[in-house]
Amino acid sequence: MKALVLFSGGVDSTTCLAMAIDKYSRQNVAALSISYGQKHKKEIEAAKKIAAFYGVEQFFLDLKDIFNLSDCSLLEHSNKEIPLKSYSEQMEKSSGPVSTYVPFRNGLFLSAAASVALSKGCEAVYYGAHGDDAAGNAYPDCTAEFNEAMGIAIFEGSGKKLILEAPFIGKSKAEVVRVGLKLNVPYNLTWSCYQGLDKPCGKCATCLDRKAAFLANSICED
Amino acid sequence: MKALVLFSGGVDSTTCLAMAIDKYSRQNVAALSISYGQKHKKEIEAAKKIAAFYGVEQFFLDLKDIFNLSDCSLLEHSNKEIPLKSYSEQMEKSSGPVSTYVPFRNGLFLSAAASVALSKGCEAVYYGAHGDDAAGNAYPDCTAEFNEAMGIAIFEGSGKKLILEAPFIGKSKAEVVRVGLKLNVPYNLTWSCYQGLDKPCGKCATCLDRKAAFLANSICED
Fold first, then answer.
1. Distance between CA atoms of A187 and A15, rounded to whole angstroms?
2. Which residue from A58, A149, B115, B144 has the highest number of Cβ atoms inside 10 Å of its Cβ?
3. ipTM for the whole complex
4. According to the model, what pLDDT value does residue B196 have?
């Protein structure tokens, strides 16, 4: 195994998976999908379908206990509602992080991925953080500063055996989709919406971001 | 809550706990003890007794599933024996990491600690990595390079809310004990041995390191 992709079943991580497969071939790529008490468990089902579509090995972890004490609105035990407005609207009155920021989630998930990747003899961990999520510090664990430090921590802490690949740091979600369209990513199988409903709500920040990213590529998913 | 201490119940993390209590007072300090499939589960019992001794709040996590695929000799599912010789002897014929290196364990544990610490409103995470464990890259996740990068990742990824305190980076275990003796750390309650026996084996690397660190402070624990 060469590369492990942190894989939620959303637009960004599915594009990452396609890039890793394009570089290493599917036999050398595995996906890691993590449950963490998220309201939108449905993304894990999407992740399973996409891993099957590509024919890659998939690992699963459940890390929800770590967030038992968090009041993040993305978590099913939280009483907070998921805001039905864009990130920029959410940050008009206060700076980030937004209420859907799960405390140090990307640090935790990347560390778990590094542990699994080392056990499987991988040389790279991929994840799909991008610049739109980092803007205004909405998600501080998507910033270039976080990514650079985490990459060094993983390289040094693994005995210089593992590198972190974050191809979309500083790029927009529209650019992510542009890359994915060239790689024929099966976006119809992906799941973005933060609410745990049968269909995407079309109103939460991630639904709005998804729609805008596809429209920027002249695609209307409705 | 002000500080969360990554707390195994061994010499180094117990000294860290004492330092955090000395700085913040016990009401503002909590301990996080993590099971990860280690052969020496006994350290968790020691950690409980020490947390009770100090009267600090204690959290527990079980992260063993993350290491299911690892063949590290420290893990109970591994067929490998724990080497009964010092770290320097273990590295005479090969460089680090040693066979008891658990893949990216400190990165994972610090990330989990950062998640819990943010949920509790802490401003600092403490851990007891020291220079003897880093020597020769025996444990690459104890090095100054790893620690510096992980500290930046935690600071940036938390939205600049959380700092990482590693007071023993670059220091020897003998220096750790010297600090702890001044703080009256109850070392008789701590557990170091990597083997899951009733009494310390006295032969594994951590038993040997512990003995040497106390002897350097003119204390014989036998």
1. 9
2. B115
3. 0.97
4. 82
Residue B96: predicted pLDDT? 83
pLDDT-derived band at B94 (thresholds 50, 70, 90) equals: confident
- Return the pLDDT at A13: 98
Tell me which chain A residues have a C-beta less than 8 angstroms from the C-beta of B144. none
Distance from C-alpha of B48 to C-alpha of B57, rounded to nearest angstrom: 10
Contact flag B115-A108 (C-beta cutoff 8 Å):
yes
Query: What is residue B198's three-state secondary structure?
Result: coil
Interface test mutation site (partner B, options A1, A115, A120, A148, max chain B beta carbons within 10 A)? A115
Q: Are strands A163-165 and A124-126 parallel, antiparallel or unpaired?
A: parallel
Among residues A30, A143, A149, which one has the least CA distance to residue B111? A149
Q: What is the pLDDT of residues B29-44, one digit of tens each?
A: 999 999 999 999 999 9
Give chain B positions within 8 Å (CB) of A137: 159
A163 touches chain B (CB under 8 A): no
B118 with A111: Cβ contact below 8 A: no
Beta-carbon contacts of A197 under 8 Å, excluding residues fewer than 6 positions away, are none
- Sorted by where each starts, the structural domains of chain B and their CATH numbers stand as 3-215 (3.40.50.620)
User: From the list A71, A140, A157, which residue is nearest B107 (CB)?
Assistant: A157
CA distance A209 to A196: 17
